[in-house]
Amino acid sequence: MSDRYLSWVNSKWGALVAGRAGLPQPVPLDRHTRHRPAADGEVLMGGAPGAELLPTLIKAAVGLNLSTLAHRDVPQWTAMASAAGLMSGPWQVAGGRGARLKALIFDATALSLTDDSTSVFRFLNESVPALVACGRVVLLGRPPETCSTPERAAMQRSLEGLMRSLGRELRRGATAQLVQISPGAETALQGVLAFLLSPRSAYVSGQVLQVVGGPVAALHAPTDPEQPLAGRTLLVTGAAQGIGEAIVRTLARDGARVVALDTPRQASALQSLASQTAARALAIDLTAADAPDRIAEAARDDGGWDGVVHNAGITRDRSIARMSVEAWQTVLAVNLSAPLRVHQALFSQGLLKPAARIVVVSSISGIAGNRGQTNYAFSKAGLIGWVQSIAPVLAAQGRAINAVAPGFIESAMTAAMPFAVREAGRRLNALKQGGQPVDVAEAVAFLASPDAAGINGQVLRVCGQSILGA
Ligand code: NAD
């Protein structure tokens, strides 16, 4: 469904009226197209005294072909960059306000009260005004629980509050995130930056991503940026329309062979999508008693799968007092029982390949709750519990499982909402607009790819930093 307000507010008159009346002024978000670099503009690097990640960041900047500038607090960056063959120079604050920065990266790993926590303030205070539309701010820190002193842990947690507030201040489609890198997981930073700096993360803002070490982080390997999923086969459920269809198209674009599953009622849409994307179509109702066995059989035909995207989901909204037991059970059967049953069948029969990636589509309703959605929120919160519970087991085997939690996405599901609820859903987020199915698909493709090495058991919200459950 189209967002008419977004078009109107970006017309000459609309911009004038909205500006005078103080109405929200969303801008069309920059989205990925082929052969775009990770960041098509200057990236300003900064850091607190003792920043620990600069050598890792140099490698990432080389790997991602970034054009960088150095804030005066990290004068060493220029020499380090030149030694690595990377073009870089100092950023001049005075002229800097006119200079247009595509992204700001601040290494806050060594932030401490005694050193001078104003370094992060100074960096952002000076550089945020120079950020272009749809720019990116990425703060880098450590998980507070890995810090050696309570003061350092406090500083690391402080960054979360700073980043979430900043995300709400940024204008014109710019986003802010915090990446917490566990000691030993540094090699995984490049892949995470590739996603967060690029237009693939258009509708992701205000998020904390933790990157851990161990077998999962070891999965990171340089890939062809246009085909990061080449040679992999992944199952996508609920594939015939909406977010599932976008996931199939995006995974296929990234080089994956997709097995697209939906109900027999959707067989013709599924077949047409499969022929456009060279996917294999599976017309199976996930709630059928024999569904797990039939899916396992299909996986065996393919010699096992490299990943599964549990996307199929339904709503049957009603307040709990008016809800029928059928509405409760149907939602639970599709949204929660089916992914668990399918996973059990694939896992127990050894049909998930060694580095398999599983991505579960939850919802911010499962985090924040939503009136009329007790059944839906019960199922979507359950998915998060499941992900967090099996993540350590999978990590020990080099596999990973993560969830995405979409907010308001323009789709058949949200088009069916009453007008006022739909408008509220669209605007109550920092980007002042709904996301597109492709925004969820990009996050899924990232989590399914080697770029997400070190990310396991996490919930990545794709919600434009919705105020719900924030
Ligand atoms: P949609 O209704 O457009 O598509 C869902 C697909 O799942 C349909 O093709 C449907 O046929 C399929 N499906 C349903 N029951 C099935 C079953 N028993 N077996 C096999 N397939 C089945 O929904 P969407 O908006 O694309 O949502 C996709 C996922 O994203 C869902 O899990 C939904 O809960 C979640 N989500 C959506 C939004 C949003 O704003 N649209 C927000 C948060 C989360």
Structure notes:
The protein contains 17 helices and 14 strands. With 470 residues, it is of the alpha/beta class. The protein has a 7-stranded parallel sheet with strand order 3-2-1-4-5-6-7, with helices on both faces. The chain has a 7-stranded parallel sheet with strand order 10-9-8-11-12-13-14, with helices on both faces. Helix 3 crosses helix 8 and helix 11 (291-301) packs parallel to helix 12 (325-348). The longest helix has 24 residues, at 325-348. The model has no long low-confidence stretch (mean pLDDT 93). It binds nicotinamide-adenine-dinucleotide (NAD). Nicotinamide-adenine-dinucleotide binds at residues 237-238, 240-244, 262-263, 266, 285-287, 311-314, 334, 361, 363, 406, 408-409, 411-414.
Terminal Cα separation, in Å?
26 Å
Biggest pleated sheet: 7 strands, parallel
Which consecutive residue ranges, at least 5 long each, have pLDDT under 50? none
Number of strands: 14
Broad shape:
globular
Kindly report the average pLDDT value.
93
Secondary-structure-derived class: alpha/beta
Ligands in the model, by name, code or SMILES, are: nicotinamide-adenine-dinucleotide
Portion of residues in beta strands equals 15-25%
Helix content: 25-40%
Which strand order spans the largest sheet, edge to edge or round the barrel?
3-2-1-4-5-6-7
CA-based gyration radius: 22 Å
